[in-house]
UniProtKB/TrEMBL annotation:
Involved in the biosynthesis of the yellow-orange carotenoid staphyloxanthin, which plays a role in the virulence via its protective function against oxidative stress. Catalyzes the head-to-head condensation of two molecules of farnesyl diphosphate (FPP) into the colorless C(30) carotenoid 4,4'-diapophytoene (dehydrosqualene). PROSITE patterns: SQUALEN_PHYTOEN_SYN_2. Pathway: Carotenoid biosynthesis; staphyloxanthin biosynthesis; staphyloxanthin from farnesyl diphosphate: step 1/5. This is 4,4'-diapophytoene synthase. It comes from the Bacteria. Pfam families: SQS_PSY. Residues 213-240 form a coiled coil. Its EC number is 2.5.1.96. Keywords: Carotenoid biosynthesis, Coiled coil, Transferase. It comes from Salinicoccus bachuensis. InterPro entries: Isoprenoid_synthase_dom_sf, Squ/phyt_synthse, Squalene/phytoene_synthase_CS, Trans_IPPS_bact-type, Trans_IPPS_HH. The keyword NAD does not apply. It catalyses: 2 (2E,6E)-farnesyl diphosphate = 15-cis-4,4'-diapophytoene + 2 diphosphate.
Length: 295
C-alpha cells in the first residue's frame, strides 16, 4: 500500500476494490495490474458508478429509485462543496480528486444517465442510444482518463467517451433478456429493429431468427468500429496503463463473440469471457504493444 495512505483510507479503498471484484470481473482482471495508486483510483470511480446504478436497479419502484438518486446527488453536492460525506466510497473518491484532475461534472452526468432509466423510453434511433450511453458509460471513460493518461486534450476526452459508449452497447447486447425480464427495458433502438423486421414482441418471446441476428449484428458493428478506432489511441496513455486498457477493451469486445458462439442466446444466459480466454487476450495485447513500439 502506498505509504501516504492512512489505515482508514486503506480500508476505504479495499471496500471499493471488493465492489469491482464482485460486480465486474472483466474490469477487475484488466485494471488490477495497474500501479497501486492508479488501480485504487479506478476502484473508487467504479464504486461511485456502481452506487448510482444500484440506486435504480435495486429499487422496488420508480419513486424509491428517484429518492435513492436524490440522496446520492445530495451527497455529491456536499462532496463537491468540500463537506465530505463520511462513507468509504466518498473518502476514497475524495483522495482520488486530490490526486488527479477529475472532471466532477461527469459524476453528475452519471446520475443523469440513471435518471433516464427511471423514466425509460426505448431509444428511437442511434442518436438516442448514444445520448443515453454517453451519460452512463461515456462519463466513466472521461472520469478514468486523468487516472490513465497525462493528456487531457479534448480529442482524448472525446475518444475516451466513445470507448465507454462501445462498452455500454456491448452490455446492452449481452443483457437483452435480463433487461427485459427484470426491468422491462429494450435498449435496441426502434429504428434498428424496424429496419430488420424484428419486433419488441419477438424479443419478449425470446425468438432468435435471422431478423433478430441482423438487428443484433448492426448494433454490434457500431460497437466494434468504436473499439477498433480506440486502439489507435493507446500510445497517448501512460505506459503502465496501456496493457490494462487494451485488455479491458478486448475482453469486453470478446463478449460479443461469446454471444455469437452461443447462437445469439442473450435471453436465457449471461455470456461471459472465460479466464483462459482473458489470459490469451492479455498475451495477444502484450505482443501488439511490443509490435507497435518496435515499428
Amino acid at each position: 500500500m502506498t505509504k501516504n495512505y492512512t489505515p482508514s483510507l486503506e480500508s476505504d479503498y479495499r471496500q471499493c476494490q471488493s465492489l469491482i471484484r464482485q460486480h465486474s470481473k472483466s474490469f477487475y482482471y484488466a485494471f488490477s495490474t495497474l500501479p497501486e495508486t492508479d488501480a485504487n483510483a479506478v476502484y473508487a470511480v467504479y464504486a461511485f458508478c456502481r452506487m448510482a446504478d444500484d440506486a435504480i436497479d435495486q429499487a422496488e419502484d420508480a419513486e424509491t429509485g428517484i429518492a435513492n438518486l436524490r440522496q446520492l446527488e445530495d451527497g455529491l453536492d456536499a462532496f463537491v462543496a468540500g463537506n465530505m460525506p463520511q462513507a468509504p466510497m466518498w473518502r476514497a473518491l475524495g483522495d482520488v480528486v486530490d490526486r488527479y484532475d477529475i472532471d466532477e461534472s461527469m459524476l453528475y452526468a452519471q446520475i443523469r444517465g440513471q435518471e433516464m432509466d427511471v423514466h425509460f423510453e426505448q431509444p428511437k434511433d442511434m442518436d438516442d442510444l448514444i445520448h443515453y450511453s454517453s451519460h452512463v458509460a461515456g462519463s466513466v471513460g472521461k472520469l478514468l482518463l486523468p487516472i490513465l493518461s497525462d493528456d487531457l486534450s479534448q480529442e482524448r476526452k472525446a475518444n475516451a467517451e466513445k470507448l465507454g459508449i462501445a462498452m455500454q452497447i456491448t452490455n446492452i447486447l449481452r443483457d437483452i433478456g435480463e433487461d427485459m425480464r427484470e426491468h422491462g427495458r429494450v435498449y435496441i433502438p426502434a429504428s434498428i429493429l424496424n429496419d430488420y423486421g424484428c419486433s419488441v414482441a419477438q424479443l419478449e418471446e425470446r425468438k432468435v431468427d435471422q431478423a433478430f441476428m441482423d438487428a443484433w449484428e448492426h448494433l454490434a458493428r457500431e460497437a466494434e468500429v468504436l473499439y477498433e478506432d480506440f486502439r489507435k489511441e493507446i500510445l497517448h496513455y501512460k505506459e503502465e496503463a496501456q496493457l490494462p486498457l487494451l485488455v479491458s477493451l478486448s475482453v469486453y469486445r470478446e463478449i460479443l463473440n461469446e454471444v455469437r458462439s452461443s447462437n445469439y442466446d442473450c435471453f436465457s444466459k449471461r455470456n461471459a469471457v472465460s479466464m483462459t480466454r482473458k489470459m490469451k487476450i492479455r498475451n495477444e495485447e502484450s505482443q501488439f504493444l511490443k509490435n507497435i513500439k518496435d515499428a
